[in-house]
Amino acid sequence: MTLAAFVAVAFLLTLGAISPGPAVLMAARTGVTEGMRTGFFLAMGIGIGAVFWALLALSGLAVLFQIAPTLLWVFKIAGGLYLIWMAYGMWRDAPNPLPDVTGTLPRRALSAFRLGVITQLSNPKPAVLLSAVFIGTVPPQTPIWTLAALLTYLFLVESAWNTIVARIFSFPATRRAYLGAKTTVDRTFGGLLGLLGLKIAAT
């Protein structure tokens, strides 16, 4: 695999990471509601979830989905329903007061990490995208170390981007604006997440 081909794949992975979706939405909400530290661990989980999908893609997931399209349908329905369930929780709890992030964080590091992994895995679209990227641009004879470098880059770009999103939304000014319109903002987040869940389940 040439350096130019590696850069091209890395560019496609970057575009996939920064495109709006459930992971970015969850990073934004976590940053504003629970702070940068929780957002960081959430982003790490999102990165690991992306690597998991990439490993499945490299293992021939796209071929499996072609052979057994019902499996992809099951993935989409399950993932979409999970996102809708999370959206319902956001909508239901929107009027509740915001926990104080200056003291004990409302979510432990492991819990935030787990939420990041689950959020990423609940959306099978990355699996399809990564399958297209790896099958279409990575030759079968690519050395293991090159694949490892691509997976490392994928983890870093997913984690870094969602950490940046969480950081932006964790700034005091952003938080103050959020506190002034918590119910509306939470229900907007929940509505968007629910729509994404419906879109995933229906397509």
What are the defining features of this structure?
203 residues; globular; 10 helices; 82% helix; mainly alpha
- The helix/strand order is HHHHHHHHHH
Tally the beta strands.
0
Shape: globular
Distance between the amino and carboxyl termini:
34 Å
Mean pLDDT, as a whole number? 81
Q: Treating each run of at least 4 consecutive H or I residues as one helix, how many helices?
A: 10
The assigned structural class equals: mainly alpha
Unreliable runs? none
Q: Provide the gyration radius in Å.
A: 18 Å
The major β-sheet equals: none
Number of spatially distinct domains: 1
Helix content: over 70%
- Determine the strand fraction and express it as a percent band: under 5%
Describe the model:
- By secondary structure, the chain is mainly alpha-helical.
- Helix content is 82%, strand content 0%.
- The chain has one domain.
- The radius of gyration is 18 Å and the shape is globular.
Helices and strands, with pairings:
Layout lengths: L2 H16 L3 H13 L1 H23 L2 H7 L1 H25 L15 H13 L3 H13 L6 H27 L1 H9 L1 H21 L1
Summarize the structure.
It contains 10 helices and no strands. The radius of gyration is 18 Å and the shape is globular.
